[in-house]
């Protein structure tokens, strides 16, 4: 018997089963009222973009669609995958129900506002 | 070393194959000008009638992209504005990975292209440049009389 067969741990197997994906580059900017995230997703039409919040995780998944001629043969490819995936962990003061997203020219813009109670408030000092 | 006739784990094998394939792509440099990795990423393919170039350049005003073809050398240049706001002390950039500033990528095309027949379009952040090959260079079927 080949005893190498049992050296593979379950974790390794599941990791290799995960389809490798492109990691979209992002900018994340925070201001007083929330966070704005920009992600580069070239080649992604609106209907192939999937942004969702699962628990505290923000998940961006997208499919690259390129109309190439049928008889084309690739001679050089720097982008070799057609799937984008990236996940972020949200912190508690962000409001996952109010995330807004827009996609234009291959750039996704996400706005995640801070929850009401986390918004900065000016407290007026009462003179007694 | 003895190798089993049946691979231990099909998925591990596929993964290994994929990595080997990726490496072989990485080491091949098809032109003397090379293909430096940069912005925008380029994919190039060819058909019997044309050469197709795809530049992955999201978030750019199409009017600001300059494409030049000179003596078989294709140049794509332009500028990408920064998404970061001016530093006013009220915002914090936590992650800043996206490209900003001027870019320029150059690649040499095959000899048989027709410099007069170039088409460029921009869609979903991908610039597609299609260069036709010359009629005389295209494969032709010759009828026997």
Please compute the radius of gyration of chain B using only Cα atoms. 21 Å
Strand content of chain A: 35-45%
The poorly predicted ranges of chain A are: 1-17
Query: What is the name of the CATH class of the domain at 21-67 and 78-118 in chain A?
Result: Mainly Beta
Main sheet of chain A, how many strands, which sense, barrel? Answer: 4 strands, antiparallel
Structural class of chain B: mainly beta
Write down the secondary-structure element order of chain B. HEEEEEEEE
**Biggest sheet layout of chain B:** 4 strands, antiparallel
Q: According to CATH, what is the topology of the domain at 35-81 and 101-138 in chain B?
A: Immunoglobulin-like
Work out the number of β strands of chain A: 8
Quick one: how many beta strands of chain B?
8
- Structural classification of chain A: mainly beta
CATH structural class of the domain at 35-81 and 101-138 in chain B: Mainly Beta
Task: Give the overall shape of chain A.
Answer: elongated
Ends apart, CA distance between termini of chain A: 87 Å
**How many helical elements of chain A?**
1
User: Which percent range describes the beta-strand content of chain B?
Assistant: 35-45%
Largest interface, C-beta closer than 8 angstroms, per-chain residues: A-B, 43 and 47 residues
Low-pLDDT segments, ≥5 res of chain B: 27-31
Biggest sheet strand line-up of chain B: 1-2-8-7
Specify the helix fraction band of chain B: 10-25%
């Amino acid at each position: 018997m080949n005893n190498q067969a049992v050296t593979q741990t379950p974790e390794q197997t599941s990791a290799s089963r995960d389809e490798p994906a492109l990691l979209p580059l992002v900018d994340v900017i925070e201001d007083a009222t929330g966070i704005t995230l920009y992600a580069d997703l070239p080649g992604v039409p609106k209907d192939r973009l999937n942004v969702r919040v699962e628990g505290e995780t923000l998940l961006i998944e997208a499919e690259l669609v390129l109309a190439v001629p049928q008889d084309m043969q690739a001679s050089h490819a720097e982008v070799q995958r057609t799937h984008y995936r990236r996940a972020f962990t949200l912190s508690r003061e962000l409001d996952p129900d109010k995330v807004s997203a827009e996609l234009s020219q291959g750039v996704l813009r996400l706005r995640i506002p801070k929850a009401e109670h986390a918004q900065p408030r000016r407290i007026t000092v009462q003179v007694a | 070393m003895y190798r089993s006739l049946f691979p231990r784990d099909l998925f591990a094998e596929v993964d290994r194959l994929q990595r080997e394939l990726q490496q072989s792509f990485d080491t091949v440099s098809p032109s003397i000008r090379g293909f430096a990795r940069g912005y925008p990423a380029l994919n190039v393919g060819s058909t019997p009638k044309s050469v197709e170039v795809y530049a992955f350049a999201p978030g750019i005003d199409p009017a600001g992209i300059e494409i030049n073809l000179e003596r078989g050398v294709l140049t794509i240049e332009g500028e990408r504005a920064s998404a970061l706001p001016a530093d006013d002390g009220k915002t914090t950039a936590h992650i800043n990975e996206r490209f900003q500033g001027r870019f320029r990528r150059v690649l040499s095309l095959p000899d048989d292209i027709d410099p007069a027949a170039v088409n460029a379009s921009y869609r979903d952040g991908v610039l597609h440049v299609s260069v036709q090959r010359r009629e005389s260079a295209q494969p032709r079927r010759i009828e026997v009389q």
